[in-house]
Write a structure and sequence with these properties.
The protein is mainly alpha-helical and 121 residues long. It has a single domain, classed as Tetracycline Repressor, domain 2, CATH 1.10.357.10. The chain is 71% helix and 0% strand. The chain contains six helices and no strands. The model has no long low-confidence stretch (mean pLDDT 87).
Length: 121
């Protein structure tokens, strides 16, 4: 049963990524995700009770990969200049290799933010 529960959460994330990639981040809604997964909106809300949590779950793995790419690039560099060049190059390669991931990381989190609410969703 636990595997199935985790599987549902992962299916929701896969569907959310598909919505963002195919339709754009402004179309990311609980209804759109639920329709794509074939579950109720309440099922999506069970796993991700608000849009901020859903977006965090979508973006966190990519941010961790980005961080690892940057750290890996600067390890054992002889100088600060070499480390900076390696870091910038690694991040450029990381992001240009998957522009959908870049949009997911840096455009999608902006959806739902309202000025005057401390940037909260």
């Amino acid at each position: 049963m636990a595997a199935r529960k985790g599987e549902t959460a992962e299916r929701i994330l896969v569907a959310a990524r598909e919505v963002v990639r195919a339709e754009g981040p402004d179309r990311l809604t609980f209804d759109a995700v639920a329709d794509k997964v074939g579950v109720s909106k309440q099922a999506v809300l069970y796993w991700y009770p608000n849009k901020a949590r859903l977006i965090e779950a979508l973006v966190r793995p990519a941010l961790e990969s980005e961080s690892a790419a940057g750290r890996g690039a600067v390890n054992a560099k002889a100088s600060a200049d070499a480390a900076i060049r390696a870091f910038v190059t690694a991040l450029a390669v990381f992001h240009t290799s998957d522009l959908d991931r870049f949009r997911l990381m840096y455009v999608t989190p902006q959806i739902g933010r309202r000025p005057g609410r401390n940037g909260q969703m």
